[in-house]
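subagent[fold] <- orchestrator: predict structure for attached chain, return tokens only, no commentary.
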Amino acid sequence: MDSETLDDVDRGILFALQRDARNTTIAEIAAEVEVSSSTVRNRLDALEDTGVIESYYPKVDYERAAFPLHVLFICTAPADRRERLAREALSTRGVVDVREMLTSAQNLYVEAVAVDTHDLTTITNDLATTGIELVTSEIIANHYTRPWSHFEYDDETDAEPSGSSGSF
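subagent[fold] -> orchestrator:
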């Protein structure tokens, strides 16, 4: 399954899940995309089986969970070792997310949480020993997300997906 095989129902399901997967029932999604609950369940199974939906996970407020330091490290890794170093960074205690960038010298974004500055120093030192160059670090105050509008349900079968210009 790829973006060309996703129809309006699949996109509507993805939009609803991105908006609030935890508090949205299959029946609510079915009503929103105008199909039966069993159709939504079957579509979810197919989206999961083909890897379109990779996982479900909670959004954690680290400060409320007693981890007041939420930090984004902007790093550089040699292109030929970037993927290996990203995976290694992810195994560092305190690291919760690593993003590989395809372009620019600053090609790894490492997100970590810490209890205090001592904990943060340990994370920083552990990352540095992997061979990643730490360019800068920023404390994250807030993180906002929204569903991608391309997935918003459109019940007009002849219409282009919402937000689409028809070509890429």
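orchestrator: received. Logging for downstream: The radius of gyration is 20 Å. The chain has five helices and four strands.
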